[in-house]
Amino acid sequence: MHPIFLRIGSLAEIHAATATMPLERGRRVIARTGRGIELGEVIGPCRDPNASVKSQVTVVRGTTDEDELLIRRLNRHKREAIQLCRTALAEAGSKACLLDIDQIFDGGTLLMHFLGPADDIATSITQEIAKKYESIVRSRHFAKLMQDGCGPDCGTAEGGGCGTSCSGCAVAAACK
């Protein structure tokens, strides 16, 4: 295993992570975190061997051209969700201030970051926006393939690695 640091989320949180191969700085990767499957960027190697042991973040694989297309689509919908939410908050008279939204790679999970506490109006509006976003994106099936490939732990050491059992795997090309 190769311990590395990843930058994840709109707040650019830095996490210690493990990867099955060395990865260069700036490489975009798909990582499994406590929140789900997320996009991350490699910051560099982690020289503290204990940091990656404590980490619950693992690199699934580097991004593919198909991932980058999906990411652009998700970002477009994310920008629309941010604008819609900010407009709805202002129209409703809420004092809540939406800073940004993190979207998990499944496309159906939004995590909204507010400056200060969110009031009841903001909570109601964000729930409505999240439902609308999920109905538009509908990427859960694709995300399941990204996570599982042709079976649980596909493309990981636990799953036997890519190319060991099926050449038609949805993620096999990314694991090479």
TrEMBL record:
InterPro entries: PSP1_C. Residues 57-146 form the PSP1 C-terminal domain. It comes from the Bacteria. This is PSP1 C-terminal domain-containing protein.
